[in-house]
Specification:
Order of helices and strands: HEEEEEEEEHHH
Shape: globular
Oligomer: single chain
Strand content: 25-35%
Mean pLDDT: 85
Number of strands: 8
Largest sheet: 8 strands, antiparallel
Number of helices: 4
Length: about 160
C-alpha cells in the first residue's frame, strides 16, 4: 500500500470536493478543540452534505482560505455564523453560511457509531454542553485532570513538581 501525504488544507479541500459530489467522507479527528467527546487521533467524523444548518450542529467550515475547523455552531444570525469547539471555553471563529462545507452526521468513538441526528443521547449532550459555556473551563479542567491525568502547570509549580 502506498501512502500519500497532503497538507491539511489540500486534504480538506479534496474532502469538500467529494462531499459536493454527494459522497460521505470519514476523517480522523485531529486536535483537541472538540474535547471531551471527540478525541484527537482516536475518533472519526463522518461528514456529509447539508443544505440547512442549525445551532448545535457540528460542521466542517473554512474559516479563512485553506484553514478548516470541525466545530459546533454556537449561533447563526442571517448569513453570519459563530463556531466554537467543544473544548474551547472562550475562543470562537466567525464565518458565513457559505463557508460551511459539511455537517458531521456521525462520530465513531471507541468503535461505537453515534448518529448525530438520531441519537437522543447526542442531541441531549449537545444542548447541555452548549448551555454550559459559562462553566465549561472548569469542566474541561476536571476532565483533563481526572480522565486524562494531565496536571496543569500552575498546580505542578504550586506543589513543587514542575519546573521552577
Amino acid at each position: 500500500m502506498q501512502t500519500l501525504q497532503l497538507e491539511n488544507s489540500e486534504f480538506l479541500f479534496q474532502v469538500c470536493e467529494l462531499i459536493k459530489e454527494g459522497h460521505s467522507v470519514s476523517i480522523r479527528a485531529r486536535g483537541n478543540s472538540m474535547r471531551p467527546f471527540v478525541e484527537s487521533g482516536r475518533d472519526i467524523a463522518v461528514l456529509t452534505h447539508a443544505d440547512n444548518f442549525s445551532v448545535g450542529d457540528v460542521v466542517l467550515a473554512e474559516i479563512t482560505p485553506g484553514h478548516y475547523v470541525l466545530h459546533r455552531i454556537a449561533s447563526i444570525e442571517g448569513d453570519k455564523v459563530i463556531l466554537r469547539g467543544d473544548g474551547n471555553p472562550y475562543g470562537t471563529e466567525r464565518c458565513t453560511v457559505s463557508d460551511l462545507k459539511a455537517i458531521a452526521s456521525q462520530f465513531i468513538r471507541k468503535g461505537v457509531t453515534w448518529n448525530l441526528q438520531k441519537s437522543w443521547f447526542w442531541k441531549t449532550y449537545s444542548k447541555v454542553w452548549v448551555a454550559l459555556v459559562p462553566i465549561r473551563k472548569y469542566l474541561l479542567a476536571l476532565y483533563r485532570l481526572l480522565w486524562l491525568g494531565e496536571i496543569p502547570t500552575r498546580l505542578k509549580r504550586l506543589f513543587g513538581c514542575g519546573r521552577q
